[in-house]
Specification:
Blueprint: E1 3-7, E2 10-12, E3 18-25, E4 32-39, E5 46-52, E6 58-60, E7 68-73, E8 78-83, E9 92-100, E10 113-114, E11 118-122
Length: 124
């Protein structure tokens, strides 16, 4: 198994931007499907975006389409989540997830490796 390490969370004003990073320790993301989920207080963990490292295809939840961009940098062995036009309802703990030799899934069960989460707070 691979450990996933997220970083980049923080406090930002509405309309602002943040970039999250997810890096695996011990191996590369080659052959993986990776994704970002988020969980707001009292709510379920939900899929927001994912990328298939084999073909580069990306997938987005409607709630973030047009505002968030997922990318994979093979040279840096890092998945990024660029978040623009942030809203208070984007406030949540953001989790990186991965599964080897799989396609992007939109459910928690589609992944067997998870990061520890990073807090994103959008508030004025």
């Amino acid at each position: 198994q691979v450990q996933l390490v997220e970083s980049g969370g923080g406090l930002v004003q509405p309309g602002g931007s943040l970039r999250l990073s997810c890096t695996p320790s011990g191996r590369t993301f080659v052959g993986y499907a990776t994704a970002w989920f988020r969980q707001a207080p009292g709510k379920e963990r939900t899929f927001i975006t994912g990328i298939n490292w084999s073909d580069g295809h990306t997938y987005y939840a409607d709630s973030v389409k047009g505002r968030f961009t997922v990318s994979g940098n093979s040279a840096e062995n890092t998945m990024y989540l660029q978040m623009n036009s942030l809203k208070p309802e984007d406030t949540a703990v953001y989790y990186c997830a991965a599964k080897f030799h799989a396609d992007v899934a939109t459910t928690i069960k589609g992944y067997d490796q998870w990061g520890q989460g990073t807090q994103v707070t959008v508030s004025s």
